[in-house]
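Quick one, T. Sequence first:
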Amino acid sequence: MSKGFIYALLNPTMEGYVKIGRTIKDPNERAKEISNATGVAQPFILVYQKQFNNCIDAEKYIHNFLQEKGYRVSNNREFFQLPIHEAIDIINYIYNEINENLGESVFDEDNTEEKELGESLYEEGSKYLYGIDDYLEDVEKALVLYEQASELGFGLADIGLGLIYSSGYSNKKADKRRAINYYKAAISKGEMLGYYKLAKVYGASNKQLYNSGADDQYYHQDNAYKCWNLYFDKLLEANTIDATALKEYIQFNKVSRNEKRYCWLIKKFAADIEEAIRADNWVRDVNDLLNYLRELSSYQE
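Structure tokens:
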């Protein structure tokens, strides 16, 4: 289920038109994003919002209803030509008629089309972010594509957005709070990698772990441990493993509580973890960390 909002936007430069769409985030933030992305002369104004149990299906139902009434400007656009008061009345009418049933889709389809589109947008966004193939590196373009994929419920897009804001990628200013929110959004969409990324944000501000200039504002040892534990538990449920994550876990654990947990797992994948340690140029003392790896590997739980 994709609980979220249906919103109605107006723009002073587009008289007589209403933009009706959906979002799982704050509609005010979505209005700002659309204004920045479209490059219009004046920003969009949020006029109305309504929360639905399943905003994806609700948007489809509303758009189809408006199209049947002849209000839709173009089949592939979210713009409709009607008075704003009538748009609000229609949103409320559909809310009252079907909202209670939208927890279970009013459509027979399983949103496969949205998932595929979300994945496609995410992949294209990653090409812009990293300059893959013939794509020129463009962080702003990547942000727009990731946001679109996120709106379609593709959790890895939120991971990408969190990565950009957690590290201040390229010319973007780092915003740890925003990154945390994106990683939490990824988790809500079933993307367990969000736990790993959250653990890094909560733990990476530890001055002992990285450098004296680290920012302690978001350092939260308990939250970091909880996220590591949740991530590894999810991996074990899926019968898979992440040696790089285990490497980063023991780095964090070494300077934090030094818990003797997951030692059997560390022992089982010690060779892979050692390879990850030796390949990481950011490890401050390779031999010291390798000795700690051996210590954990030999611990009898």
